[in-house]
């Protein structure tokens, strides 16, 4: 297992290097100047603007700038934010826990809804419960997150007044009161992302469970007199979840993309809102670092998915 993980991490290095090079070139060729506001400010002397461009190497060749950025990244220097005037790693460490909490909670909610609903629908295909589950799934992934987010705000915040619609990262207080307020303000964004993902996961779980239910060993288990619930838990669910694990791993970029929109709606001070603000301000070091973090998370979750394959199906050898 350890050798397999090490080999996968070594394979991931060229992928991350290629992703970082493409991102850097695209951002370098994109229109806009991070010091555009300084150029329009008459109070900033031209020699100061020129000195800043020389200091940050903005006029150097692209490949030279990329090698300088890569060398700094390898030494733990993620750059300096032109807009916030602080180090990029400090900005990301401030915002990333909030995003991981919201995205992680939404994925847990999506799986807690999709797995039992999909398995139950597969046990009774074309029944009333199956048709209701399919209808709700189609409605769920047909509605974009910005629409459901605004709908939740109108209903639960403005109409009923139950939940706050502005997320605060630094809530005052401690103990149970602080924990309850944290949960209250996370309910709507987590529900918006979670139910959107649960809709697509439900369809995959149902389809995968129906395929597994037709296999010979499942028929043999039923012939031995095992109850349908035991057959579903021990023989269908485990193998049916293998393609779902693949889907969850591949959906991570889409989840973070949806989180960017959701963070804007609920004013969540996460890494998604940081990325939007950096793009609007042409803050290239922040955009580069955030997108590189997203790429690293994708590689990490794909490795976790491969490890889960071996746990779900012992016939899959991790060598």
UniProtKB/TrEMBL annotation:
Keywords, alphabetical: Cell membrane, Membrane, Transmembrane, Transmembrane helix, Transport
Q: Where is the ABC transmembrane type-1 domain?
A: 96-305
Enumerate the CDD domains for this protein.
Answer: TM_PBP2 (cd06261)
As for subcellular location, the record says: Cell membrane
Membrane topology note: Multi-pass membrane protein
Q: Does the keyword Membrane apply?
A: yes
Q: Does the keyword Transport apply?
A: yes
Transmembrane region(s): 9-30, 100-122, 134-158, 178-196, 240-266, 286-312
List, alphabetically, the Gene3D superfamilies matched: MetI-like
GO annotation, cellular component aspect: plasma membrane
List, in alphabetical order, the GO biological process terms annotated in this UniProt record: transmembrane transport
Segment forming the signal sequence? none
A Pfam family that this protein carries is BPD_transp_1_N
Q: Which family does it belong to?
A: Belongs to the binding-protein-dependent transport system permease family.
Instruction: Identify this protein by name.
Output: Peptide/nickel transport system permease protein
Q: Which organism is it from?
A: Methylobacterium pseudosasicola
